[in-house]
Amino acid sequence: MSKPIVRFAPSPTGHIHIGNTRVALLNALFARREGGTFILRFDDTDLVRSKQEYADSIETDLKWLGIAPDIVLRQSERFDLYDAAAEQLKDVGRLYPCYETPEELEFRRKRQLARGLPPIYDRAALKLTDEERATLESEGRKPHWRFRLDHTNVAWNDLVRGEAHVDCGSLSDPVLVREDGTYLYTLPSVVDDIDLKITHVIRGEDHVTNTAVQIQIFEALGTAIPTFAHHSLLITASGEGLSKRLGHLSVKGLRDAGLEPQAVASLAVLVGSAEAVRPVADLNELAKLIDFSHISRAPAKFDESELEHLNARLIHEMPYEIVRERLVALDADLGEAFWNAVRGNLTKVRDVAEWAKVVRGPVTPVIEDRAFIDAAAEVLPDGPWDTTTWKAWTEAVKTKTGVKGKALFMPLRLALTGLDHGPELGNLLPLVGPERAKARLSGQMA
């Protein structure tokens, strides 16, 4: 296989959500694995709704995920290409002008439904004479332009779906150019894929019908057709479709919530596939797990609780050298021993600040049995302390008081940390140190 050229083509009309991220990751990681090229193409022909702030946000999101594109371009800078393609389609009789108003089209649609006919465009505009078109234009009507479909069965070998086909006789001729001369998604997408030599179009199942139409446009323009892969869509845990407009599971929101990009990527890529969903810390390893033939066609649920679980599992295995700079930024870098002691209790890296405070204070001790804590303080070993100190101390406390089990360990934890949960005290106690431990056992905030 020649090196693939793939593209992620979002519209910069909002923050991308996890469903968009699935598309971006499958494209980018496929290209990475095969030594290909990953292009970010902003589909910003809607000049009113497209915003630079959203384009910037999308680039930030992709960089955070670790899949910065090799090439970035914008459709708004490529109208000359689309104009030339439109003229070519007009010259071969595949792009034709139509003059119906939206109200007239809606009336026809309802009339066809009432007659039990499919509500597709009846191609009335093809029957207009030059004189009739001139009359409509003299009335101030401007044409929109439709692509005349061949009413055939369009088939292709889809990397996800296998043999796929769409009966184009059941479709309306799609509008490619609006009355104001602006382009809808369909034609610029094909023209860019041709110009950029896109080899694989990897996108969601909701584009299957578009693919049949676009294959006919590729053919009408006399060019090769790329390979297609239509993967399953992601939905929320409650079964809703994802929407940029409604802000469902935006990447920005997940990032702001403190989640790890590797957790987001792992779930976005593996959910709904034959691979077990698990945290994969390295994107190169994640890329090796992509097999389009093993992706289910059924919608896959993206569960935020599952994402939290994956996030925690990643952090529990995260080496100190990987996270050190982030600990510094959080003012929680107390060394490798501290990180190794507390990471098993973290769901998000930023939660480490709570345990840094437990170690260095101030902590308000919780003492429910003063006599027991005083007895424990009397046998507290002198320093220096290491990871064996906790066991030696609790054995001494048990011998002195006769208390054992939870009744022994919990009061000591409450007094030393002010909390009823946390990391193993065998690892935490040496970090707290003798001075702070003695102060807390005496009831002082320290």
Give the strand content.
5-15%
Task: Please state the average pLDDT score.
Answer: 95
Q: N-to-C terminal Cα separation, in Å?
A: 65 Å
Based on the coordinates given, report the CATH architecture of the domain at 370-441: Orthogonal Bundle
Helix content: 40-55%
Evaluate the radius of gyration.
Answer: 31 Å
Query: How many beta-strand runs?
Result: 12
Low-confidence stretches: none
Number of helices: 18
Main beta-sheet annotation? 3 strands, parallel
GO cellular component, one term: cytoplasm
Keywords: Aminoacyl-tRNA synthetase, ATP-binding, Cytoplasm, Ligase, Nucleotide-binding, Protein biosynthesis
InterPro entries: aa-tRNA-synth_I_cd-bd, aa-tRNA-synth_I_codon-bd_sub2, aa-tRNA-synth_I_CS, aa_tRNA-synth_I_cd-bd_sf, Glu-tRNA-ligase_bac/mito, Glu/Gln-tRNA-synth, Glu/Gln-tRNA-synth_Ib_cat-dom, GluQ/Sye
Domain Glutamyl/glutaminyl-tRNA synthetase class Ib catalytic: 6-308
What does this 3D model show about the protein?
This protein is an alpha/beta fold. Among the domains are: 261-316, no CATH class; 320-360, no CATH class; 370-441, Arc Repressor Mutant, subunit A. The protein is 45% helix and 12% strand. A 3-stranded parallel sheet has the order 1-2-3. Strands 4-5-8 form a 3-stranded antiparallel sheet. The chain is elongated, with a radius of gyration of 31 Å. One of its GO terms (cellular component) is cytoplasm.
Short description:
With 446 residues, the chain is of the alpha/beta class. 45% of the residues lie in helices and 12% in strands. The chain has helices at residues 18-34, 52-65, 79-91, 102-114, 130-138, 186-195, 208-220, 251-256, 261-270, 283-288, 304-316, 320-329, 336-342, 352-360, 370-378, 389-401, 406-417, 425-441, and strands spanning 5-8, 37-42, 71-74, 95-98, 144-147, 153-158, 162-167, 175-177, 200-204, 227-231, 234-236, 300-302.
